[in-house]
Amino acid sequence: MSHDTHHAPVACKTELAPERSDLGLYRPDRATGWTDWLTTVDHKKIGILYGAFAMLYFLIGGVEALAIRTQLARPDNDFVTARMYNQLFTMHGTTMIFLGVMPFSYAPLSGTFGANGQALRFTGVGTDFWIIGIQILGIASLAASFNFICTIINMRAKGMTMMRLPVFTWMTLVTAVLIILAFPAITVALIELMFDRSFGANFFNPSAGGQPVLWQHLFWIFGHPEVYILVLPAMGIVSEVLPTFTGKSLFGYPIIVFSGAVIGFLGFAVWSHHMFTTGLGPVPTAAFSLLTMAIAVPTGVKIFNWLGTIWGGRIRFTPPMVLALGFIWMFMCGGFSGVMHSSAPADSQQQDSYFVIAHFHYVLVGGVLLGLLSGLYFWFPKIFGRMPNAPLGYLGSALVILGFNLAFGPMHYLGLAGQPRRTHTYHAGNGWETWNLVATYGAYMLGIGIVIIFGNLAWTAFRGKKCGNDPWDGRTLEWSLPSPVPEYNFAQAPVIATRDAYFEHKHGSKKIGAESDGGEAGVHMPSQSWMPLLASTGFLFAGFGMPMMAMGVPHAGWVVIAGLAVLFLGIWLWALEGPGGYMLKTPAPSGAPAPAETAAH
Amino acid sequence: MSDTAAAHEAPTSTGIDHKKLIMWLFLASDCMFFGTLISTHLLYRKLFPAGFTDAEGHQRFIQDLFSIELTSFSTFILLMSSFLMALAVSAMHKGQIKSFRRNVLGVIIFGLIFLGCQVFEFTHFYHKGLTIQNSVLGSTFYVLTGTHGTHVAIGVLWLILLYFYSFTGKLGGHMGALDVEVAGLYWHFVDIVWIIIFTAVYLVEYLGPYGIWGSGLPAVVK
Fold this sequence. Notes:
The complex is a heterodimer of chains A (601) and B (222).
Chain A: H1 4-7, H2 33-39, H3 43-72, H4 82-105, H5 110-119, H6 126-154, H7 167-199, H8 212-246, H9 253-266, H10 282-294, H11 296-310, H12 319-342, H13 344-350, H14 354-384, E1 386-387, H15 390-416, H16 433-463, E2 465-466, E3 494-495, H17 501-507, E4 513-514, E5 523-525, H18 531-551, H19 556-577, E6 582-584
Antiparallel strand pairs in A: 1-2, 3-4, 5-6
Chain B: H1 2-8, H2 18-47, E1 52-53, E2 59-60, H3 62-65, H4 68-93, H5 97-127, H6 136-165, H7 173-202
Antiparallel strand pairs in B: 1-2
């Protein structure tokens, strides 16, 4: 019992002497500005870091997209070179998926690493940096997923059975399972590619018998589940937003949860539908066609459940609700063109044309982005205690939805009219000029909408109008807490008796209870640590060094070794440091977890 | 330290300790990792059953390369290290720290013997002409078995750290036993993966036309 002092009830962490770890070093304190943000173990702060970095990279990916659209605005344009164009669309995809969309619900701090892969993409070994960048992002995503799964299934409140979990939490769980099972495929593919490029191996080298099509298989064994990794959290968000603004409970909760799990499961069995034109043979083509069509069933079930939720409800058209309704509509359009692709003969006509671009942007922008923006706006008052400006919210949402349709709707036509993707320009006279120009205008409109939404949120975070703890008449537990949520979350661990526990607590008979043994001792808080930062810095240097070693930069090998040494040292010291921790006395030691005053009606 | 932390840690919803659950999740992920590597190797074995061409331009067969006796020996050693690991975990649960140290030292030594065999095997194959550059077989074989070797090396490093940590007196109680058990899960997994690799990469080669029931290797090679 060497840590008695840290387990003694205290009113406030700052009243303690600086805490020493088992190593005899002082641990960072949550009361010290920048240090706190670099070493925090508070999931809410980590969430804000995710969000801020995701928004930043989202803007970078958006600028890349606008450069692409500017280049394609008119025929035979020379705004960027062909080489530059290739780099732009590669990095647009990578930035948006790994650094923009995934961290919105995922990938903590990984943004800081990915930047290096990105800033150096013009060095001539850009691909090597890209490989390492994705590899580090993959490891970060895996670590985050282990953490999410463990937290969700192992740290639920009393009475919070699996079938009472909010759907967003459920979908995060399915997503995390998909990540831990899908990422190894891309990890191995990248390792093999790295060995080919750096050490002369022959995995994908045709002259020695290597099969480039193996790269495609490995990529899509990861890549298709990745689509569901991106879309399932958005589906979860919409499943929270719709019931809140219709005043009804989610229609068919068990079916929605089950459909999400089925989508995740089937997501592993459809990867070859990206590869119909590689000549798989009739049996695999038929099988992957059928399975791809089958995945439309659970997705359709979800859509009908969402419609059932809205049906007969008292709908409040708040900005998050507008975005959520936009999600249903746009995602459905993306789903319809997806079913068209599942038919192999049709797909072989659409392969590598703009029709495919239109399809997956309807899924990823019309679906995922609208869902994520809805969630961002929805939970923003909870995170900062301030309400974003509503007129700006409507304006931004309208511009995003309209601009998006203008940008990507015409691409269906362009694709069927034969315009190929991944081509830096096109000649006049193919009949593609008008719709390309319209698409570019749409893209700028979408960009302005995003800037308005992000600008509104950024301004709100610092200067916005303060709002109550429960401005939306929320249904789930987080709305019962003060906004912003205190560092200890619940003063006393709640006891749950039903789904939509807080809504029932306010309007029904089933109240939220409190665990009896909480109050007096306070809440156990974990100590902060420098060691994860140290380890990740080592990782950064190792990641930097490896492509440089392949380039022949002198002493780069030592940078790699030193980086790996720092990485292992960081992990080791972190393990030795011990969990530490202290008891925080909470202001309300008894009673239910203090429902907000606004709930009194 | 560990005990005080445990005392304050709330019981988990499923009753499984967080650390153990996370290790199981990692192992699930690692299954897919090795699954992909083994699939790559087997796919290329099916495409190019004849083996590889060495520096002098001679066609070489994998059966000519392998020393099944040596690999069987190192496989046996790794299997026995798993047995010692189980004893070490059991000792830790009973609080017998000395027995734990003895057994874990055995695991470390057996792990090092296995790694030594692999180093020997790699140099031997290299001198017989199989390199990572000269064939797809070389690429898949070295990367697959090398990745497994890296897993063993990380496990050995982990156990060495646990071994020395046990002398500080801080490795004890429920949390200490948990730490050892989690390391044990990893070690058993790495062992099981090797059993699969040994079967799919080594043993299966002896079932084909050039194996024990076939007509033997073509004369040119011998």
